[in-house]
Each structure stands twice: as structure tokens, then as C-alpha cells.
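R.M. (postdoc): so does anyone remember the format we settled on? I'll just put the C-alpha cells first.
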């Protein structure tokens, strides 16, 4: 039995370049190894331009910690490894942590800054099956620069992680999601929890509408087909942050929500029923009001379903990404072992 794993996309003006990471229950190759494969879109043809075999299956990947001029992929494996790969010479990992989460899987990885001026260190964050959330600086060889440990006796599986609030080098937060439905926001300047809530079921994926601005909204995708958008602009000391919620028509696990590069309020949800659902977050007339204690309290907006596909594939669509240069151009992968390119029209009309 073979499963398709993580997919991340790096875009250029002339090509659509992406990495297709295979994770398997048996094997990808005859030597019982796995693979990172790089493809290039040439007209209507998809060509494999590079490949490297890995000893263990890959669970997740991100280009978040690299600049546009240096295509570096960071991956987490099913055996707890964290690696970075230079796609211009995909022969061996450029940085490796053999036991980032012991021998437990690295469920999610996100990156930030990538050496861009004014945005701080090129850090990576990982969420592991050991319940820990770790922050790494590839310039520090072997140890995380910060470890967010679960409370004693509450080591829930950490499934999702996302950087946010990266407006400058001095502000940075990290969102983490867990199998019990917990969502936690950590202030990385102090290493403490800034906010937490429980959305009722396992958190499969998290994404801020924009990483490199002051926190605005956070999309939360869940096991039970529920989609939540947390408004992070206002936090009341007792009532926390406002949250809008909607049940996706998929009736299945929501594997993620990806915001379009051109409009931060529009995002595609890809689901376990093989379908995709385009949503837009609609802000309320006033994003905050003064509560009876005369402190500002956030007001939730609404999550509007704009369009949906008939089932794009019979298997779950587990990964999706937009092209940054060509509005509406996207790529997605599914458990039927296929990679597909799609175009979504009319996005510019959504405001």
C-alpha cells in the first residue's frame, strides 16, 4: 500500500516547481526507500527534474524558511528526523537533526524569515507526536532554540504548527494544534502561551491569512469537517478571541486551508472526500466592541462558501498550494497517487 505525503510549492515566473514527497506503508523503491521528487511544469507537461531517496517516509515539508532566491526545502519524517534540502543540488541534506522528536513522527513543519532583512532569524517550527512543539535555527546545529513542552500527563499529539505576527524582527508568535482540539498561540519572545482554546475535535492544519503582518486571522481545519477562523486582532482577558465556525459540506476531514496570495480573505479548503471548497472570510461591521467591563472584545465575522468542486478525486486531497505569480493557478495531491494542476477563475472579482 502506498500513500502520497506532503506537498509544498515553490513558484517562479516561468515554471511551476514543486516537491512531491512520498510516504509509504511498504516501500517506494525496490530498496525499501522513499523519495523527494522535484517536478517542473513545461507547458502542459509535468517533468521530473530531480530526485533523492530517503531512508524514512516524509510526513511534512515547507519552503517557509528560505528566500525566493534560494529554494530550500525543510522536511520532517515519520522517524522524527528534521532535514533541509538545497533543490539546486538535491544529493544530500544540507542540515539534519536525526531525532528532532526522538523516534516519534514530525507531524508538521513551518518556516519563517529565511534571511529576509528585518524579519529575524530563518527559523523552523515542528509539531511532533511526542506532544512537543520545537523552534529551530538551522545555524544552531543540533538543538532547538525553544521547546514548548506539554503539561505533565497531557502529552496530546501535536498535529499542526504555523508562524504568525512576523511584522519585524522583534515580534513573532507560533500557533499549534493538537489531536484533542486544542489551539494554542505562543509568544516566542517570552516562550509563554498567549492564548488557547479548544475547537472540539482534532486540529489537522493551521494557517494565518498572512504570516508577515501583525496577526489578523487564523484558519483552523479539523477532523470533524469543521472550519474555524479565529480573529487574532483583539483578545479579551476573559473571553479570549472571537471565532467564526462553519461545517464544510465535505462531511470529512479537512486537510487544510490555503489563503490565496492575492487576497488574504479568500482560501481553499481541501478535504477527505476528494473535494475542494473556496471560502471567503467576511468581516463584521465592527471588529471589536467594549464589553461591560469597558474592555475591547472581538466580534466574529462570517465564513462564506463561494464555490465548491464536484469530487476532484475519489481519494482525499491532502495537500494544496497556490502559485504566487499567476492568480488562480494551483497544484494539489491526493491519495490516488496523482498530482494535478488546476485553475480557479474569477478570484479577482471577490474583492
Amino acid at each position: 500500500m502506498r500513500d502520497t505525503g506532503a506537498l509544498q510549492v515553490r513558484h517562479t515566473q516561468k515554471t511551476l516547481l514543486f516537491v512531491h514527497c512520498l510516504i509509504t506503508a511498504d516501500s517506494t523503491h525496490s530498496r525499501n526507500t522513499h523519495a523527494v521528487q522535484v517536478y517542473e511544469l513545461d507547458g502542459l507537461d509535468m517533468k521530473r527534474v530531480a530526485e533523492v531517496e530517503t531512508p524514512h517516509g516524509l510526513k511534512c515539508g515547507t519552503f517557509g524558511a528560505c528566500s525566493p532566491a534560494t529554494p530550500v526545502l525543510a522536511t520532517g519524517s515519520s522517524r522524527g528526523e528534521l532535514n533541509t534540502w538545497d533543490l539546486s543540488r538535491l544529493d544530500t541534506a544540507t542540515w539534519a537533526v536525526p531525532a528532532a522528536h526522538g523516534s516519534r513522527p514530525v507531524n508538521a513543519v513551518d518556516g519563517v524569515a529565511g534571511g529576509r532583512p528585518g524579519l529575524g532569524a530563518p527559523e523552523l517550527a515542528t509539531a511532533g507526536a511526542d506532544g512537543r512543539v520545537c523552534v529551530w535555527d538551522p545555524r544552531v546545529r543540533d538543538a532547538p532554540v525553544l521547546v514548548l513542552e506539554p503539561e505533565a500527563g497531557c502529552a496530546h499529539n501535536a498535529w499542526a504548527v504555523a508562524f504568525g505576527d512576523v511584522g519585524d524582527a522583534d515580534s513573532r508568535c507560533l500557533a499549534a494544534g493538537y489531536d484533542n482540539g486544542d489551539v494554542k498561540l505562543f509568544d516566542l519572545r517570552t516562550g509563554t502561551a498567549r492564548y488557547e482554546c479548544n475547537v472540539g475535535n482534532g486540529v489537522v492544519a493551521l494557517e494565518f491569512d498572512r504570516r508577515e503582518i501583525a496577526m489578523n486571522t487564523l484558519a483552523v481545519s479539523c477532523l470533524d469537517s469543521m472550519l474555524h477562523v479565529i480573529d487574532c486582532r483583539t483578545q479579551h482577558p476573559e473571553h479570549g478571541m472571537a471565532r467564526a465556525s462553519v461545517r464544510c459540506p465535505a462531511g470529512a476531514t479537512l486537510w487544510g486551508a490555503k489563503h490565496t496570495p492575492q487576497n488574504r480573505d479568500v482560501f481553499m479548503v481541501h478535504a477527505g472526500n476528494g473535494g475542494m471548497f473556496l471560502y471567503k472570510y467576511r468581516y463584521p461591521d465592527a471588529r471589536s466592541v467594549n464589553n461591560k467591563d469597558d474592555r475591547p472584545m472581538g466580534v466574529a465575522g462570517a465564513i462564506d462558501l463561494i464555490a465548491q468542486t464536484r469530487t476532484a478525486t475519489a481519494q482525499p486531497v491532502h495537500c494544496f498550494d497556490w502559485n504566487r505569480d499567476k492568480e488562480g493557478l494551483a497544484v494539489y495531491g491526493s491519495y490516488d497517487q496523482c498530482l494535478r494542476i488546476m485553475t480557479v477563475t474569477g478570484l479577482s472579482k471577490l474583492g
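R.M.: ...and that's the designed sequence above, right after the C-alpha cells. Also worth knowing: The chain has a mean pLDDT of 86. DSSP finds no helices and 30 strands in the chain.
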